[in-house]
Amino acid sequence: MATPGKSGPSKVFFLWFFELALLVGCVRLSGSVRFMHDPAGYLEFSNGLPWRAALFALVLCVSMTAFGLHHVYLRKNRFGFILRELYAFLFGGVALLVIYYLFPDAYIGRGVLIASLLLGFIGVLTLRMVWSTVYASPTLKHRVLVLGAGETASFLERRMRRANDRRNFRVIGYVPIADEEIKIDSSLLVRGEGGVDQVASLLDADEILVALEDAHHGIHMESLLAAIERGVRVCDLPTFVEREAGMITLSRLDPSWLVFSHGFDHSLPRRLNKRAFDVIFASLMLVLAMPLMLLTALAIRLESKGPILYQQMRVGFHGANFSVIKFRSMRVDAEKDGVAQWAKRDDDRVTRVGRFIRKTRLDELPQLVNVLRGEMSLVGPRPERPQFVDSLNEQVRYYSMRHSVLPGLTGWAQLRYPYGASVRDAEEKLRFDLFYVKNHTFFSDLSILVQTVEVVLMGKGAR
């Protein structure tokens, strides 16, 4: 997802390129070994090899993206990565078999396919280990000097303290200012003669992160201008968190930052390409999912009496209400008192079939009709019920801004945060929803849609 000045996506682009080239090489190497003693066979195999190898590599790279392996902000350990890679190669292998069945000319042969998948798995794993070791080196991270050591600066230590949160940068110190209550450990403080520009020069900082209360901003402006003249980048806390963490910080956010920052593209071209994206992909998904939807409907009818589908009022674009369509996953009398309730873990109102279709997200498939109607988009903030929205608008600052785009079948918050079932959860998810509202593009929508495959297959966030 595009944000200004961030280094993470550029790394992902290069990683994608290297893995694509590596997988192409795996096909060529597998073919050379397979036909080592069969020159005539290799000659036939090599006919059209460049595009067939490129197709193999492209399908696997897309599959790895779908399982979050090219996710800029993903937190993952080594075991988690290996598991994701295994799922990605299995899924990619099945996708390739389907493609080969439909387009026989693309087939590279059973032996070469198996060998290429095995070599590719080992090669990608090795490349990632080298890649993570290289980029984990402090010398390749940009050096950040924080101006401020009070409550605002402490946000960095509270919310971005993990190594995965700091994969692109290294904090080299906090510069305290006068009349500020220190909230940072003394071992992290740095002091020096002159302004922050001189401290930055002394410590060879690449960037100064301004983490001050609004009242102190003007006092240090001359020093910050001097730092810019020396080639040191200057960034405020909301922009920095947006760039490095893929979310909007709410507690330290001034409305003027939202007003004057770039983003919030609601232009006619963007609206048209988003609508075209929704109609094309929703129609395709509806056709492909129809057998699953028919089986789901049958299972619901066999388990309990009552409607197969149900409609529920939700808040959509610009706060307008609409009826969302879902497969019924609860008892008919789940809300017999008419009072809306947050979903909870191990909810006893959920039926046995309902528990399965929630886990696999099959209950959401009828919402493709909402997408085709123009009431929802494939990608956007998830729509909430009016009763919850009224309460959240009063309790959570900027909550109404999520309604400036169409609600979605899936969204950035669904990839980054587990199921929300409280006011606090809603506030946490809003950080990611606002990031999407501010930065959504055609390619970010495509990326989120592809990565949702992992959420569905691994059953993340369902209740």
Automatic annotation (TrEMBL):
Subcellular locations according to the entry: Membrane
Keywords: Membrane, Transferase, Transmembrane, Transmembrane helix
Broad class of the protein's primary localization: membrane
Domain Bacterial sugar transferase: 274-457
UniProt keyword Membrane present: yes
Any Gene Ontology biological process: colanic acid biosynthetic process
Membrane topology: Multi-pass membrane protein
GO CC aspect terms: membrane
Membrane-spanning segments: 12-31, 51-74, 86-103, 109-131, 279-300
Tree of life domain: Bacteria
MF-aspect GO terms: undecaprenyl-phosphate glucose phosphotransferase activity
Residues of the signal peptide: none
Pfam families: Bac_transf
Family membership noted in the UniProt record: Belongs to the bacterial sugar transferase family.
Protein name from the UniProt record: Sugar transferase
Species name: Solilutibacter silvestris
